[in-house]
Write a structure and sequence with these properties.
The structure is a single chain. By secondary structure, the chain is an alpha+beta fold. The chain is built from two helices and 15 strands. The protein has helices at residues 169-181, 228-259, and strands at 2-3, 10-13, 18-22, 31-34, 40-45, 51-56, 60-65, 70-76, 83-86, 92-96, 99-103, 116-119, 125-130, 136-141, 144-149. Strand 13 (125-130) and strand 14 (136-141) form a beta hairpin. The protein is elongated and about 120 Å long.
Length: 277
């Protein structure tokens, strides 16, 4: 079993030689592929999600195109492969008992010999995996753990804003919280991730006969009532009205002062008001 790092689809190998692809939102497998003439022993998918590698008890290691589900290359071995892993740069590591082989450019062209070979004496390899951003391959076997150097296995140019191999403990804790907050819903996991950001082309048309007449509200909009020119004139009119009111108030006040008419009517309490000298 392995998970596709590109679209989070889970790939399972079965004893009948098939590989199935599963999504959390479906009860049935999305894809069924007949990969080997015997039980499938190991499955691996690269970081781009384009290539898949399978090993079976028929002593074959096959390369598959994960987009078209077709076989691209096949390699024969002296023993069935038991473990598979793929590095960030596309190196394929496969173990046969106590031996591990590393294949370079295995997806592009047919290789005549492995890139590197390592033998663990007197033990059986039970697991292997590449270290991210490092040229190191870890081997777990019956006697313990062994790490070997594989030149060109790790990604040399990394984006520190996305994945920082030298992050501190505090940064790791913050990244874990961010990953949980940004975790997508299971309904969005699908084979084609390009469909998430696309809009639906077909628009469902609803016949007018099926609608309730009360729900249909017709709006009659008069032409030119809300044009840019009309809005400008309305705004200018309000500005002129305000200025006109201010001018009128100033003229009335000056007229009253000339005629000696007070602005407010006099009362009995006006005698107590403060008078300027």
């Amino acid at each position: 079993m392995c998970q596709n790092p590109w679209n989070a689809i889970v790939n399972l190998g079965h004893s009948n030689g098939t590989v199935t692809m599963w999504s959390p939102s479906m009860k049935e497998p999305l894809v069924k592929m007949l990969c080997h003439h015997g039980p499938v022993s190991a499955v691996a998918v690269d970081n781009t999600g384009r290539h898949m590698v399978t090993c079976g008890l028929d002593k074959q290691m096959k390369m598959w195109d994960a987009r078209s589900y077709k076989e691209s290359l096949a390699y024969y071995s002296h023993r069935p492969g038991s473990n598979l892993t793929i590095s960030q740069t596309g190196l394929v590591a496969v173990s046969f008992g106590g031996q591990v082989q590393v294949w370079k450019d295995a997806f592009k062209t047919k290789q005549k010999a492995p890139y590197m070979t390592h033998q663990v004496e007197g033990s059986v390899i039970e697991g292997l995996d590449f270290a991210n951003f490092e040229d190191v391959l870890g081997l777990g076997h019956s006697k313990g753990f062994t790490s070997i150097l594989i030149p060109g296995a790790g990604e040399a140019n990394y984006d520190a804003l996305e994945v920082n191999p030298f992050e501190s403990k505090r940064q790791k804790q913050e990244n874990e919280v961010k990953m949980l907050l940004n975790k997508i819903q299971p309904e969005l996991i699908s084979l084609d991730q390009g469909n998430i950001h696309k809009m639906k082309d077909e628009v469902e048309e609803i016949p007018l006969d099926s609608l309730n007449p009360k729900e249909i509200v017709l709006k009659f909009k008069m032409k030119g009532k809300n044009s840019a020119k009309r809005r400008f004139h309305r705004r200018e009119k309000h500005i002129h009205d305000e200025k006109r009111q201010k001018v009128r108030a100033a003229l009335e006040k000056a007229k009253r002062e000339n005629e000696g008419i007070p602005d407010e009517p006099k009362t009995m309490l006006d005698r107590f008001k403060y008078k300027e000298a």
